[in-house]
Amino acid sequence: MAYEDEIEQKITGSTFEECKEKLFNLYGKNFRITNKVVDFRPGGFLYLKKKPVTIVSYVVPHQKSFNESYSEEEQLARNREAILQQAGNVTNVMVTRTLEEFKNDITSQLKQMQQMSAASQDKHESIKKIEEMLEQNEFSLSYINMIEEKIRNDFSLEQLDNFELVERRVVDWIGESITIAKETAFRPPHVFIIVGPTGVGKTTTLVKLAAQFVKAFAAEHNGQRPAICFITTDTMRVGAMEQLERWGKHMDSHVYKAEHTEDLKTLYDDNRANMDAIFIDTSGFSPNDATHIAQMKMLLEVPGMNPDIYLALMAGTKTRDLQNIMQNYEPFGYKSVIVTKCDESEQFGNVISVMYDKHKAVSYITHGQVASRDITKANVVDFLTKLENFKIDRIHIEDKFGGQA
Ligand SMILES: Nc1nc2c(ncn2[C@@H]2O[C@H](COP(=O)(O)OP(=O)(O)O)[C@@H](O)[C@H]2O)c(=O)[nH]1
Ligand SMILES: [Mg+2]
């Protein structure tokens, strides 16, 4: 037969024997093998593992090439014909069986291809694991997607198998996503304002900031005490004034009350010349109480006051609530975030995610009820060491982020 005129075709199998068997099933003895190569092609989960594949080149005296697109029925009919022609001594039962096997072969190959295509849409084990770990740390969905995207862009498929490498890089990225607020220059009277929802710890934190200010001032001025005072605009809540007065007494400082902008303006003007710092406490509202938030914003607008405004966020707040709060307090133009009650929370992914999404910096974290002690300047290393389940290379992150405290 004129094989030479035929187009060379290829068939693959896991072994040469398998290829030959496939060819026999297709064409009986009516084929000629022209070449054989063993190739390593990607296979397995996500095509990551390589397995050997035997590729056999062959020719058959057919008019149509095997590679041309026949319908499955056409293909079967064509091969039934070929087999019947070639195997005159084979019984019909055997032919049917061979065809049945061929059909099964096609079906199983089809299935395999479908599985492979499904697997390619699947995630690599390392990505899955990182995703789970980020979820455990309560990072937001959009933050997790951002990290996954970075992993995909940064790692080759082979590198993905090295989980520790991926994990280490992810820790770095989390660190890079945290912005620590720059300290503002001291400008007496330095005005500090904390805004935020009810009960997050605004008053306590304000007192902590004052205590810290006193300490730092004294350290820089040969032990001299600064002149400070408190002003509360929280005139509605029962006990709010008393709470602050207790602290004021403790710190030997005046506590004033301001109900309207004019009150605040007068108090500011009266004190600006002789105060090193003024600490303004505000009342908390529900983050959805836009009217009161707007009123308070107006109250705080005293010309020339130029305050440092902080938004207090409680560490244990749900991501969506945090997003909502940050959004609604946006009009205050707060400089940075103070994360409160960190001692009551184990995961910080929520806060990190939301601050990242909203491009906000963090200045302090608070971690207890003791005013003279439980506040720390925020630093990246602390946030990273609090990540649950992530292996943390302390020396590496100290080297990389230690200077940003
Ligand atoms: N565990 C813990 N409790 C805190 C912290 N800061 C404030 N608190 C407590 O939270 C409650 C509300 O605090 P407060 O300052 O009155 O909140 P405000 O309504 O936002 O002014 C009080 O019982 C505080 O003692 C903190 O960092 N850790
Ligand atoms: Mg308060």
Rounded radius of gyration (Å): 36 Å
What structural class do you assign from the helix and strand content? alpha/beta
What is the class of the largest domain in the CATH system? Alpha Beta
CATH superfamily placement of the largest domain: P-loop containing nucleotide triphosphate hydrolases
Largest sheet: 8 strands, mixed
Instruction: Look up the CATH topology of the largest domain.
Output: Rossmann fold
Instruction: Report mean pLDDT, rounded to a whole number.
Output: 86
Strand order of the largest sheet: 6-5-7-4-8-9-10-11
Distance between the termini: 83 Å
For the secondary structure, the number of strands is: 11
Can you describe what's shown?
The chain has helices spanning 16-27, 72-86, 92-121, 125-136, 141-154, 157-160, 163-177, 202-220, 240-250, 261-271, 290-300, 319-329, 349-357, 380-385, 394-401, and strands spanning 9-13, 32-43, 49-59, 190-195, 228-232, 254-257, 277-281, 308-314, 336-340, 362-366, 375-377. It has 405 residues and is α/β, with parallel strands linked by helices. The protein folds into 2 domains: 3-121, no CATH class; 190-378, 3-Layer(aba) Sandwich (Rossmann fold). It has an 8-stranded mixed β-sheet, with helices on both faces. Strands 1-3-2 form a 3-stranded antiparallel β-sheet, covered by helices on one side. β10 (362-366) and β11 (375-377) form a beta hairpin. α4 (125-136) runs antiparallel to α5. The site of magnesium ion has 5 residues, from α8.
